[in-house]
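User:
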Amino acid sequence: MAAKPSIPKGTRDFSPMEMSKRNYIFDTIRQAFHLFGFQQIETPAMENLSTLMGKYGEEGDKLLFKIQNSGDYFNKLTDEELLSRNATKLASKFCEKGLRYDLTVPFARYVVMHREELVFPFKRYQIQPVWRADRPQKGRYREFYQCDADIIGNNSLINEIELLRLIDHVFNKLKIRVAIKLNNRKILAGIAEVIGEPERIIDITVAIDKLDKIGLDGVIAELKEKGIGDSSIEKLLPILQAQGGNKEKLQTIAQTLKGNETGEKGVEEISFILDAVEELSLDSTVELDLTLARGLNYYTGAILEVKALDVVIGSITGGGRYDNLTGVFGMDGVSGVGISFGADRIYDVMNQLNLYPEESIRTTQIMFVNFGDKEALHCLKLIEKLRNAGISSELYPGSDKMKKQMGYANSHAIPYVALIGESEMGNNTVSVKNMNNGEQRSMAIEELISILQA
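Assistant: Predicted structure:
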């Protein structure tokens, strides 16, 4: 017997029912993007490795899926290089392209390539898959969708506030209770300077960003492993352990960073955002989290993550301010800020909490039973009227036994079945069975349309 086919770890197939649920999420987010004035673009699944490498930090570079060159790529390699077994060096020789790791770096590349066509500020959104060579685990996949919204070409903090309102709007629509966690990379940079480790900002942020996963002791151990001294760690502890509400945490960090220009600027920015959020009264909880770091190197200002309150899972949305991401592609001084909804994690949350409205997972509203060729042709004419009225309808394709046709309707959760025989054709009516309660009655096609449109 042939081996059963499989798919790569960290990827998934989706059934029609699952796709109905996923499309409900995508449609909800897409409608919100349009409501807030964002315009859609798309970029290729693969980018040149020169575009991707060095933009996500050392850990991110390791997680890039690299695409092998076509043709005889060994021809340009020496025997010495082949025998070295140096995977990184060899990959650089015969891999020129890679699958995109996120949508932000390709977007920056897009902006630079198309700058003559764009009007700034440019508000774009993308809903596309990304790939990461990560270890698959619950809530973490190798192929997953991101739904990104970015505002580039403007450094006003109003943009951050609008993105927070967008997040609040989307999760209200999806009925997911969330907490939005905020911080600022300038605050983190100021902390690194104050504790005497200004050159170790990346090591510090990477470590403290793991606080939820490895705990305080794990963070301390990692900081020591990176060579950060005990006195510096001691100065860092009060910040990692800061308690209280947003105002208390702000007072703590403002006092700690007093006199540090970078840190004070970060405190000023986050204070402005928090004051605006309080004034606008968002439904979602907004919390200042001084341990939030966001591992990506390109963030320079406000950073955020969104956590679901009723399900244990990683962040379901993230983002932040990047002041010069386009600079690596030769276009300096263009500030941007963006967020990314993790559609696959949102899907997992929605499934666990069963939050899908009934209409979102229904496809066909009514199925016509097939009694034979003459009846089928008559049904097709009526189906055309229903479809013109925006009602999803289908005819069972073969004149199989009634039990089989009804079983098809049940298995697809079709709520109504139409039965048209000689008598119905003669008096121009439709016999309609409600599959939920078993009731059946005859009616004119106009009445059926009215019922299904209600």
